Amino acid sequence: MRPCSNKEEISSTAKLIYSVTLCKEEHPECRVSAIVSALEKAHLTPKFRGSDITQLQNCKTATFEDVGDGHFISPPKKAKYSVSEEGVDGSGDTHTTDTTFKESLVSTGAEISLVDYVVASAKITKNPPIGFALICPHAVPDGPLGFCSGGNVAIAARHAQRVHGLQRVFIIDISAHPGKGTNDMFYDDPDVFFLSIHQDGILPGAGKIDHIGRGKGAGATLNVPLPQFSGDFSMQTVLCQVIVPCTQRFKPDIILVSAGYDAHVQDPQSKLQFLTRTYYLLASCIKKLAEDLCGGRCVFFLEGGDNLESLSNSVADSFRALMGEPSNSAEFDSRYFVIMEPYLGARQAVQKIKQIHSL
């Protein structure tokens, strides 16, 4: 176990524990600052909640052993990309510099410390806190992609297996973009179930409905590509008819969530129409699944989200869901932005998935 400096403060009363990692290069990490400000404004921090909410402090930096399996950007001296102050040649929209690797190790240390805390708490209480890592998102196994420099949720999954002996890991990716890196990492692995909900065709060639795993891992990957303009109704359909039965059938030892907020109707990165309340319902349901199936062991990892207002409000409402408190989404959600959902397209996608996976 790689503990934080406050390991002795594991509490049997905490409902939520979170970590914050701010990078020097604030693209797109300015969103972490915006989220922290929103949490303060919403009184969703230890300052206002006492022991109910804990922020993990002074976490140890991850080691090469922690980020094994090659699912991380290589150090600059070993990178396949040309590293300079201008970024990494070939990394597309991912801005990285010669400090990116070190900062990524700091983020990874925070995330695996959250896993350690949640697992340790589950040993002393039936209601351990849910973890939420406000850090940098994932990438593909051999390099950076899509504003992402490291495979955080994949590293956390392997850490849970290797260090804590939690064999069966269920990963839910709710970003608007397919979780290509995580998908590829576990495509042959029957012990890691990867479920991705995303916009159909937003990343060509990735996240197709018939991408279901390979070899021993066949059936342990499930992609839910939703048509453009799918929103709250479509997500609730997927939640009830896909996420819940898949998780119940897999019987995980821990649930990890790639918590992307770029499917929000106000976000410029997609043409989906999720609302703040959509994320509240998702977090509430996932929390209940963790309580019912794996002793409450569950950790969320921040992913996409480029509209700082909708991102911050949605993360704050996710915190309320994980705390078991009422949603505040009515204050933020406006139907002004929403057009008619493609109900038929969403239903057809769900029906095809149910046939493929015998749900």
TrEMBL record:
Transmembrane helix listed as a keyword: no
Biological process annotations from GO: epigenetic regulation of gene expression
Keywords: Chromatin regulator, Repressor
InterPro entries from the UniProt entry: HDACs, His_deacetylse_dom, His_deacetylse_dom_sf, Ureohydrolase_dom_sf
Cellular component, GO annotation: cytoplasm; histone deacetylase complex
Signal peptide bounds: none
Domain of life: Eukaryota
Domain Histone deacetylase positions: 30-321
GO molecular function, one term: histone deacetylase activity
Needed co-factor(s): Zn(2+)
Annotated Pfam families: Hist_deacetyl (PF00850)
Alphabetical list of Gene3D superfamilies matching this protein: Histone deacetylase domain
Amino-acid biosynthesis in keyword set: no
Name of this protein: Histone deacetylase 14
